[in-house]
């Protein structure tokens, strides 16, 4: 379980294995390797992946994760290669602050950035904010609600507006700086996880209609 609050930005340093079956990725991060156990869950760009090897390096650690066919089919992981930068979050511990919203790391699909607007406020000492317009698969559009939560590339964000299958989000300078969002441009694909409560509410409504 996660919150969508990014704690590091990692970089893929090796990617091995056949596309569509199983890929092993090695990711460099700044985490203390002593704090990562084999079998630990780390949200990597949204998907929850299991650590299968870990080691120390200058400045932090490296860790290996395996991505199987389901993950490769439903997320952007199949597109990751050496040099890809990804948002990272360690799994929650009892007593941790729930700063974003409840995120499972189970990605629902892939969304696409269709527009990016820089928003400045005169002499803004902290830099510009940015508004992104995101297009989602039509099957996921009903789960996106204005002022609701959504997880994109592992980041917990608030939906500003919704028009059919396109919604907007507004990112502050801090988020643009400490995540991969500062690099995101029109046409980029994003891992999307809809809000857990929205998913179960829709399933309950569907079950009631069938009664």
Compose a concise summary of this entry.
The protein has about 210 residues and is mostly beta strands.
Structure description:
- With 211 residues, the chain is mainly beta.
- The protein is 12% helix and 41% strand.
- It is built from three helices and 13 strands.
- It has helices spanning 69-74, 173-178, 196-209; strands at residues 8-16, 22-29, 41-44, 48-57, 60-68, 85-90, 109-119, 129-135, 149-152, 155-158, 161-163, 166-171, 189-194.
- The strands form two sheets. It has a seven-stranded antiparallel beta sheet.
- The longest helix is centred in the C-terminal third of the chain and has 14 residues, at 196-209.
- The two termini are 32 Å apart.
- The model has no long low-confidence stretch (mean pLDDT 91).
Which term fits the overall shape?
globular
Give the overall average pLDDT: 91
Largest sheet: 7 strands, antiparallel
The low-pLDDT segments are none
**Class from secondary-structure proportions:** mainly beta
Helix content: 10-25%
| Total number of helices | 3
Spatial sequence of strands, sheet with the most strands: 10-9-13-7-8-12-11
User: How far apart are the first and last residues' alpha carbons, in Å?
Assistant: 32 Å
Element-by-element helix/strand order: EEEEEHEEEEEEEHEH
Strand content: 35-45%
Q: Say how many strands there are.
A: 13
C-alpha Rg (nearest Å): 18 Å
List the topology elements:
Elements: E1 8-16, E2 22-29, E3 41-44, E4 48-57, E5 60-68, H1 69-74, E6 85-90, E7 109-119, E8 129-135, E9 149-152, E10 155-158, E11 161-163, E12 166-171, H2 173-178, E13 189-194, H3 196-209
Antiparallel strand pairs: 1-2, 1-6, 2-5, 3-4, 3-6, 4-5, 7-8, 7-13, 8-12, 9-10, 9-13, 11-12
């Amino acid at each position: 379980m996660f919150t969508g609050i990014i704690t590091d930005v990692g970089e893929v340093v090796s990617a091995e294995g056949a596309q569509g079956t199983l890929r092993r990725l090695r990711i460099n991060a700044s985490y203390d390797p002593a704090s990562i156990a084999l079998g630990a869950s780390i949200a990597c760009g949204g998907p929850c992946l299991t650590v299968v090897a870990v080691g120390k390096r200058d400045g932090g650690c490296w860790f290996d994760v395996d991505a199987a066919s389901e993950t490769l089919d439903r997320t952007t992981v199949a597109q990751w290669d050496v040099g890809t930068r990804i948002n990272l979050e360690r799994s929650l511990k009892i007593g941790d602050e729930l700063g974003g919203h409840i995120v499972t790391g189970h990605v629902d699909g892939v969304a696409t950035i269709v527009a990016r607007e820089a928003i400045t406020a005169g002499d803004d000492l902290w830099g510009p904010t940015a508004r992104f317009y995101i297009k989602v698969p039509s099957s996921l559009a009903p789960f996106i609600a204005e002022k609701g939560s959504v997880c994109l590339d592992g980041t917990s964000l608030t939906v500003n507006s919704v028009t059919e299958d396109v919604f907007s989000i507004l990112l502050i300078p801090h988020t643009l700086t400490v995540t991969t969002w500062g690099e995101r441009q029109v046409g980029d694909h994003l891992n999307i996880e809809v809000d857990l409560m929205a998913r179960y509410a829709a399933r309950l409504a569907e079950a009631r209609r069938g009664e």
